[in-house]
Amino acid sequence: MWVGDNASSMEYTTLGSTGVKVSKICLGCMSFGSPEWRPWVLEEDESMPILERALDLGVNFFDTANMYSHGESERILGEALDGHWDDVFVGTKVYFEIDGRTQSAGLSRKTVEQELDASLERLGTDTVDLFQMHRWDYDTPIEETLRAFDDAVRRGKTRYVGASSMWAHQFSHALRKSDELDLESFATMQNHYNAVYREEEREVLPICEREGIGVVPWSPLARGYLARPHEEIDATERGETEDHMYSHPYRDGGGKEINERVEEVAEDEDLSMAQVALAWVMSKDAVDAPIIGVTSIEHLEQAVEATEVSLSDSDIGYIEEPYEPVEVSGHW
Asked: Which is it for strands 89-94 and 61-63: parallel, antiparallel or unpaired?
């Protein structure tokens, strides 16, 4: 059911137990940077109008990472936010190797400290709001990473720390170690979650609800799989150029039928498939703000409109009914 008619009427929510008010969608900045990194990525002159429109629409939550276009995403975002830092909440991440630099990879103290400093320089700020471990580092003791993150908070280089996709036992272990060692604990979890990938409902989302951790899921549209009929996905630029897109089990476990049902609901409610898929994610109590990636102002405006879409219980149940367990994906 559509409950709003103004694309600028942004809805806001509290991020976990932080007390911070953020827009109900987070603009992911992976698509801003350099097409030399990924063919579908927009250069600065194409990225800036989208970022400026996001600010106009009331989006105040932005997510990037040092690996996105080898830091170019952070630089462009920093340029767009110049003069707006007091009004926004920005997260970046560390873990993946950048531009072949071995010491940029992982979560050792050296990597965490040097990559955070580099991210701050590119963003053009002394403090980032949220600094996240992009994945679990099997080669570094979690205590070392947590101490480095804690020091970053104490030194005023980040206000909060967060986690991203990992196994529930790893997440629980890190939370317990933070408590035992009296270190800054994760305020957020950025995990893989959408209508065709719901494995996070088993353990990770309940942990977040129990601990008051903000949930900011990535890929709420399943890398675009839920934004168009499944038979059309291969024709997109991303579908044609990125093998990684097919590494997720979106077509398994009833995925094709779910895609078709999202299309049906969208037609019935005069919405886009992307709006229905986003509304489904936002209907979940555990979720604070899904991370959306866009390459056009039109898609951005549709995503903002989706914050005012309220699906009926029957529509939610209809979309969910075909789902079957699939292989855990996204922890690499």
From this structure: parallel
C-alpha count within 13 angstroms, C-beta hemisphere, residue 19 = 1
Asked about 197 being catalytic, the answer comes back as: no
For the chain, which domains are there? Answer: 12-320 (3.20.20.100)
Tell me the mean pLDDT in the region 79-101.
95
**Residue 7's pLDDT is what?**
44
Q: What is the pTM of this model?
A: 0.94
The pLDDT confidence band at residue 3, using thresholds 50, 70 and 90, is very low
- Over residues 291-313, the pLDDT tens digits come to 999 999 999 999 999 999 999 99
> From the candidates 68, 160, 193, 197, which is the catalytic residue?
68
Backbone conformation region of residue 182, classed left if phi is above 0, alpha if psi is from -120 to 50, else beta? left
User: Does the CA dihedral 277-283-286-289 come out positive or negative?
Assistant: positive
Phi, psi of 13 (to 5 degrees): -145, 165
Give me the percent of the chain exceeding a pLDDT of 70: 93
- pLDDT tens digits, 10-40: 999 999 999 999 999 999 999 999 999 999 9
- Phi-psi sector, 253: left (phi>0), alpha (psi -120 to 50), beta: left
Task: Report whether 199 contacts 172 (CB < 8 A).
Answer: no
CB 63 within 8 A of CB 216: yes
Per DSSP, helices labelled H in 155-203 are: 168-180
Contact 97, 105 (CB under 8 A): yes
As given in the structure block, the two tokens for residue 55 are 């600010």
Nearest to 217 by CA among 21, 11, 24: 24
Taking CA 307 as the corner, what is the angle to CA 305 and CA 309, rounded to the nearest 5 degrees?
80
Contact between 108 and 82 under an 8 Å Cβ cutoff? The reply is no
Tell whether the model's pLDDT for residue 240 goes beyond 60: no
